[in-house]
Amino acid sequence: MILRPYQAAQHDEILTAWRSGARYVLATAPTGAGKTVLFSVLLAEHVGAACVIAHRQELVAQISLSLAAVGVRHSIIGPHSVVKLICRLHQREFGQSFYDPAAKIAVAGVDTLIRRRADLSRWCDQVTLWVLDEAHHPLKDNKWGQAVAMFPNARGLGVTATPCRADGKGLGAHADGIFELLLEGPSMRELITQGYLSDYTIFCPPNDLDLTSVERSNATGDFKHKQLVTQVRRSHLTGDVVQHYLKHAKGRLGVTFATDVESAHNLAAEYIRAGVPTAAVSAKTPERDRHELIRRFRDGALRQLVNVDLFGEGFDLPALEVVSMARPTHSFPLYTQQFGRGLRLFEGKGRAIIIDHVGNVARHKGPPDKPRVWTLDRRESRRRGALDPDVIPLRVCVECTQPFEAVLRVCPNCSAAYTPARRDGPQFVDGDLIELDAATLAAMRGEIARIDEPAQNVADRANRAGAPGIVAASQAKQHRKRQEAQHSLRALIDMYAEAQRARGREDSEAYRRFWYRYGVDVMSAQALGRPEAETLACKILGDM
Description:
- Helices cover 43% and strands 12% of the residues.
- The protein is built from 20 helices and 15 strands.
- It has helices at residues 5-19, 35-45, 57-69, 80-94, 110-115, 117-126, 143-148, 188-193, 225-234, 237-249, 261-273, 287-299, 332-340, 360-363, 438-452, 455-464, 469-502, 507-518, 522-525, 530-543, and strands at 24-28, 49-54, 75-77, 105-109, 127-133, 155-160, 181-184, 200-203, 254-257, 278-281, 304-307, 322-325, 352-356, 394-396, 403-405.
- The strands form three sheets. Strands 3-4-2-5-6-1-7 form a seven-stranded parallel β-sheet. Strands 8-13-12-9-11-10 form a six-stranded parallel β-sheet, sandwiched between helices. It has a two-stranded antiparallel ribbon with strand order 14-15.
- Strand 14 and strand 15 form a beta hairpin.
- The longest helix is centred in the C-terminal third of the chain and has 34 residues, at 469-502.
């Protein structure tokens, strides 16, 4: 099998990392980049025993097929029914079975592996390489960590599109996880630009889903499932999902992500009533039936598959055109997996269509191909609801329902202008001074003028009020220090403005970017006290 250039580069980086002494390596690449192909080639080249670990039986079958595609004979550690099914899949795809119970390479479900720990101990000692798919899961003490600990003499490779967890725990061995080194592959946007993934259009239709009372699980960091399901069923999502599929993507091959089995079947029934051939699938659907439904979907007999937490992680779906999100999530890995399902290419495909009915795009500060900084560290704790200074929030256009960054006054998709509901405070206009009313601007200028008045005026007022001379002199001194701090800050604000103009940005956008980056508007910044002005100046200088 010939690797793509970026796969070949990552292949070499992994080997170099192992040679350099890193034992457990985590490699990232976007959904659809071919991570399974990459580690299948590494396994084919490996001399010695190896084990690939997956967290669901569906992924065991998928990995087995990928190994078969590169001619690697392997055993399967799983229920007998799963082994028989995989052998049938081999016969159908390749005309022969690559299952060999005596092979040096094995594919294992994590739960089966741990359950058979005692029986497999001698073989585990012989394994010199383990590979873990969807490797944003393992922590030192959870079942994935326990599984890799069964191989004391092995080096390891984890692969994932998203090296982060919803609970904020770090994947590094120095934090909560097991990995010593992070190797970043190409970004999703790079693969789109290079033509390996399709570009996309996002729609965020309005909805009546109220999640304000839904709590987040301390264990997973995601919404508590029962509460989430209750709120989804109280909404009108079912009708909305089908309506907007018909509006934006009628007849196109799509997948809908639902919260629970009942909701999935309700959605499927609604699709069918609208004339869209559809099936609902979940972990409760018998495995043979699932494979048959996916075959019919691949052949075009079904136009929609509504699923419950089945196609989110690692599942190798056929290339499709539409993703409808009816399952809210705080998990960035889950969100990215859902989004990425629509980006695989096939001949004649145009842009993928992502229809987000549940606010996932806004919740995760934009699409997954926005630049992000990955780390093996724990996520720094942040008060819930606090402004994230590194992210520009999104606004949804009321005309075309497509999202765009809130720093823009006009929707870039349909040119509809955004009109703020109020103009009497910077918080209502995203810090855009151009949008403020005259009275508010006048009041803010008055605050600045008080800082700019001579220090002697401050001393004179104190004297007239009967303050001792030493007090008046102290107040004048503090006023001068505030002016000095403001002088430095305003010079940096001017430099910021010039840098924004050099990038071709209008003042309106620059004002808004300043607001979202620093949490204050430009004019209020020029009325800050000395400590606040010095702190803000340090932030701006640090950015520059």
